[in-house]
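From the pipeline queue, job 12 of 40. The input is one protein chain; the requested action is below.

Action: predict structure.
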Amino acid sequence: ARELPGAGPVVTCTIPRGRRAVTMHVGPYDRLGETYDELMKWVADQGERPGGPVFEFYLNSPVSAPPEGVRTWIDLLLACTAWRCEMSDSVVVVGAGLAGAKVVEALHDEGFDGKVTLIGDESYRPYERPGLSKEVLQGKAEPDSLYVHEEGYYAHAGVETHFGDAAVGCDLTGRRVRLASGSEVPYDRLVLATGSRARAVRLPGAELAGVRTLRTMGDGLALRADLEAQRRIVLVGGGWIGLEAAAAARLAGCQVTVLERDPLPLLNVLGETIAEHFARLHIDHGVDLRTRVSV
């Protein structure tokens, strides 16, 4: 305990909570007066950061009279911790991409000791997508290099995973997520990190074999197999992903045609001067670039 002028004694106790120790400072609210800044300075002097892992509780009663039923200050501090921190809540993260993986990582790093569940519609653990149209498609890197965390990370962190079992419904009243398999996952807190999807082509023949999109790991592996077979590749769209895929296809020795509706690829993103440079770069590398066309 420490006596602060105008505030009376302040009781301090450190309680382990998961991987982080929570330090409690308890004092009488009605006698605190204008000494908050002094208390914060004292907390900082103890080597702790105000607003960080420090939780303060100023009780509406003198320190010498704890609430009824609380026999010791340790009981009071434990009760305050349970009331304030809610560390035992369950968190369900829907979406096993980069965002979902980072949410799980942050919960683990910040010492959350409640149940964490990660749900994703792909059978792969979370990975970063940009490399699908770059190093992996070019054969310069393996798909394993894209994973956000090492194999075994989620089990080690105590995270329950449902990979390859998409979330198909949510009961907001009952706080349950329904999966494609028919099982349900309860939650106290729900994080939606589902990201976006590649727009489907609604044209006759779009369902035929050999028509690809590039969004998922499976898409990238299928397209890389096409490039390795040195097939003729037609890309609809001259945006970043389309041009990256075109470059990878040319490196693989494929015949490549890019169809773009604007006068230049990347025109709306980069402007005419730089867009012309990118167009000339791909043409010089053997890409058949056709602009002002639609499918």
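Job complete. Residues 1-7, 15-23, 28-36, 47-85 have pLDDT under 50 and may be disordered.
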